[in-house]
Design goal:
By secondary structure, the chain is an alpha+beta fold. The radius of gyration is 21 Å and the shape is elongated. Strands 4-3-6-5 form a four-stranded antiparallel β-sheet, sandwiched between helices. A two-stranded antiparallel ribbon has the order 1-2. It is built from six helices and six strands, in the order H-H-E-E-H-E-H-H-E-H-E-E. It folds into two domains: about 35 residues; about 110 residues, Chitinase A, domain 3, CATH 3.10.50.40. The longest helix has 23 residues.
């Protein structure tokens, strides 16, 4: 009897926990009114990306946030035919002031772009050597990544690459500039 009491209490606790989680989530109607605390969406290296599709949104407490136009999101969500469900990629990260997890004393955005363009040229010759010159977080293989994890513009740029290809220009992400190479 004691065993069944423990099982019953465990189920009751789990049910209560699920109810609390569901109850705490905002309803779909409230989600549209409440701005999401999402990271700024980056500029794309994709030729189909429209830079005019991004409009800044100012807030008194927080830094400016970029909001993606729904039409641009739909366009970017359409990957080329034969685009994989997941990819393995390597990345060279170049952080700057204001990027997520940028270290104290990080370089300016302009300096970061200049360095990223220099590293891109080097990566075309030797990707692994260029990775060593990138900031912390640069790796020759970041592992396998499924669709739906990254921001739409970053994901479109990565999943549009051919196997073994390198991006044509640095991708501005919320974490800094990325020089990405699709490995598989």
């Amino acid at each position: 009897m004691e065993r069944w009491s423990s099982v019953g209490l465990g189920l009751l606790f789990a049910t209560g926990l699920v109810v609390m989680i569901i109850w705490a989530r905002p309803s779909p109607t409230n989600r549209a009114e409440t701005p999401a605390p999402s990271a700024a969406l980056p500029a794309a290296s994709s030729p189909s990306a429209d830079p005019e599709a991004i409009e800044p949104v100012a807030s008194s407490d927080e830094p400016a946030e970029l909001k993606l136009d729904p039409a641009a999101t739909e366009e970017l969500s359409t990957l080329p035919p034969g685009a994989p469900k997941s990819i393995e990629f390597g990345v060279i990260l170049v952080t700057y002031v204001g990027a997520q997890q940028a270290p104290d004393g990080a370089r300016s955005r302009e300096q970061a772009r200049s360095l990223a363009e220099k590293l891109l040229e080097e990566a075309r010759v030797d990707f692994k050597a260029a990775v060593k010159q990138g900031d912390r977080g640069s790796v020759p293989s970041a592992g396998r990544l499924p669709r739906g994890v990254l921001e739409p513009r970053v994901e479109h740029a990565l999943f549009s690459l051919e196997k073994g290809a390198l991006v044509s220009e640095p991708i501005d992400t919320p974490r800094g500039f990325w020089i990405a190479k699709r490995l598989d």
